[in-house]
Amino acid sequence: MNKLTAAKQKIVNQQVEIKNKINSIELEAHWFRRVFHTFASCFLVYYLLPDDPWITTLKILIAVGIVVFVIILEYLRIKEIICNSNFFGLRRYEEKRPASYVYFGLALLILLVFFPQQIAIPCILCACFSDPIMGEIRHRFGKKEAYIGGFLICMFFFLITWNTVNVSILILISILGASAAVIGEAKKFWLIDDDFMIQILPAVIIFSVWQILLFGGIDILPAELIPPF
Amino acid sequence: MKKETEYIKKEENHEKLLRAELLFAPLLIICPVLVSVFLINDWYIRGFSTGISTYDGELLLAAIILSGNILFDIPFIKSLKTHHKK
Fold first, then answer.
1. Is the complex ipTM more than 0.85?
2. What is the mean pLDDT of chain A?
3. What is the pTM of this model?
4. Enclosing domain of residue A124
5. Which of A132, A161, A227, B20 has the fewest Cβ atoms within 10 angstroms?
């Protein structure tokens, strides 16, 4: 009888140990994804590089090269040439579709290459910091609080980037940009990831407003936040 | 039932994955700090020491990058330490 109880206890202990191990992997994957987001803010170093034609070409080529490499890697993973289990922190819904880092990289590339930095920088900051902060608020307090918190943080990023323009334009751009970023994050599509939408949606909206006003003879674009060398 | 937002977990492979994660960790932590230092240095040399306020944005950006990264690096390092103690 004692042997049976001891064996049962041993099994229970083993189960607890496995559960703890899995929970700690889950926790690590959680923070790993969060840190990957904040790490992406490093790519803003792009704007610190000189604007000479050959350096511009080189930095665009490097950025495109990184994204192409990631897309090829992802293609091999989806086609199961490289096993899913070789990638740390993937979610189940990413098993059969491109993972969020591909969308993140693609959106980042589009912003760096095609948008002026005054529009690109706040959008990139939204994806790097608002997204994980919103995730954490959602995790601890709930959806509504996450959207309010996210909106305020995104608004802060637009406010600091556009602080040199006139107040009405500043408020308009900040509200538009922050709303678009929160909508981009909140609205879930199966194929297009929120990491793409949170960057591209506010950028497209602000770019459109800028172009429309420019057509009417008003240039609202502020001075560059990072003047190139 | 498995939730879609759950992580893909493979018990037999996780040690290998954690090694890969450990290799990534210094890059994830050090790079943002370097970029912040680079931005602060540029602000100091081209802006602060010459009295030009055009570069103040760089200082602000450096502060955001640095504080945002530290905010998430601490729990990340804690989770790494907790796991590797087991």
1. no
2. 88
3. 0.85
4. 2-215
5. B20
Identify the three-state secondary structure at position A191. Answer: coil
Q: Which helix (H) or strand (E) holds A228?
A: none
Contacts of A88 (CB under 8 A, 6+ apart): A29, A32, B17, B18, B20, B21
Cα separation, B77 vs B64, in Å, equals 20
Q: Give the Cβ contact number of residue A156 at 10 Å.
A: 18
**Amino acid residing at A67:** V
CB distance B72–A30 less than 8 Å? no
Where in chain B are the domains? Answer: 26-85
Q: How many domains, chain A? A: 1
Helix, strand, coil percent content, chain A, rounded in steps of 5: 80, 0, 20
Task: Give the distance from residue A1's alpha carbon to the nearest chain B alpha carbon, in angstroms.
Answer: 32
Q: Are A88 and B17 in contact (CB under 8 A)?
A: yes
* Partners of A91 in beta bridges: B7
Q: Which residues of A touch B46 (CB under 8 A)?
A: 227
The nearest alpha carbon in chain B to A118 belongs to B57
Instruction: State the DSSP string of A61-112.
Output: HHHHHHHHHHHHHHHHHHTTSS-GGGSTT-BGGGSSS--HHHHHHHHHHHHH
In this complex, do A88 and B18 lie within 8 Å of one another by their Cβ atoms? yes
**Looking at residues B42-48, what average pLDDT do you find?**
93
B26 Cβ under 8 Å from any chain A Cβ:
no
B7 shares contact with chain A (CB less than 8 Å): yes
Averaged pLDDT for residues A170-191: 90
Question: In chain B, which residues have their Cβ closer than 8 Å to the Cβ of A38?
Answer: 32, 68-69, 71-73
The predicted structure's pLDDT at residue A21: 56
Q: Residue A147: what residue type? A: Y
Is residue A32 within 8 Å of B75, Cβ to Cβ? no
Best mutation target among A24, A153, A161, A224 (most B Cβ atoms within 10 Å) is: A24
Q: How far apart are CA A103 and CA A196, in angstroms?
A: 5
